[in-house]
Design brief:
The longest helix is centred in the middle third of the chain and has 18 residues, at about 95-110. The chain is an alpha/beta fold. The chain has 6 helices and 5 strands; from the N terminus they run βαβαβαβαβαα. It binds 4'-phosphopantetheine (PNS). 4'-phosphopantetheine binds near residues 8, 73 and 106.
Length: about 160
């Protein structure tokens, strides 16, 4: 049984994340999507429980994907869920530079392996950061967040901006 842990902030989940999850679900027996805290991103916008709920709704059609929330270090989450590897998506060279450092550190401190998946060309411009900016400004989220949860995300932005 090959289990991969796909960690991230998912603040909120985007079509780019879902593309990686769907493709990983075809490659691995089990995909665990881990909602973790990124210390570089301070407090975040969507409460962690809401990030999990949105992810759960978005991955519902995928039978071998589950969503969990973890505290602390990524390598502890890897050990905790018995994953053979961490999965991260790469959009561009900026991502790659940061991700390679993180992958090497996680291997250095705990022997955790990381595998990378290239973002699909159609979603390379999408990021949670941009979704937050567009959502707060009342812009259209179509094609940026998974369609099944777009109304819930739009409602969230409506509530925080009204
Ligand atoms: O979606 P993000 O913000 O790019 O995800 C980054 C995340 C949450 C995977 C990363 O910040 C992380 O692993 N956080 C847990 C703390 C940790 O293990 N830090 C050391 C990484 S080498």
């Amino acid at each position: 049984m090959r289990t991969v842990l796909y960690p991230g902030s998912f603040d909120p989940v985007t079509v780019g994340h879902l593309d990686i999850i769907e493709r990983a679900a075809l490659l691995f027996d089990e995909v665990i999507v881990g909602v973790l805290h990124n210390p570089a991103k301070q407090s975040g916008l969507f409460p962690p429980a809401e990030r999990v709920a949105l992810l759960e709704e978005a991955v519902r059609p995928l039978g071998n994907v589950s969503v969990r929330q973890f505290d602390g270090l990524l390598v502890n989450a890897v050990a905790h869920c018995g994953a053979q590897a961490v999965l991260r998506g790469l959009r561009n060279a900026t991502d790659a530079e940061e991700e390679l450092q993180m992958a090497r550190l996680n291997r250095h401190i705990a022997g955790a392996e990381t595998v990378f998946m290239a973002a699909a060309p159609g979603v390379m411009h999408v990021s949670s950061d941009m979704v937050r900016q567009i959502g707060k400004g009342g812009g259209a989220l179509q094609g940026l967040v998974p369609e099944s949860i777009r109304p819930r995300i739009a409602e969230f932005f409506k509530n925080i901006t009204s």
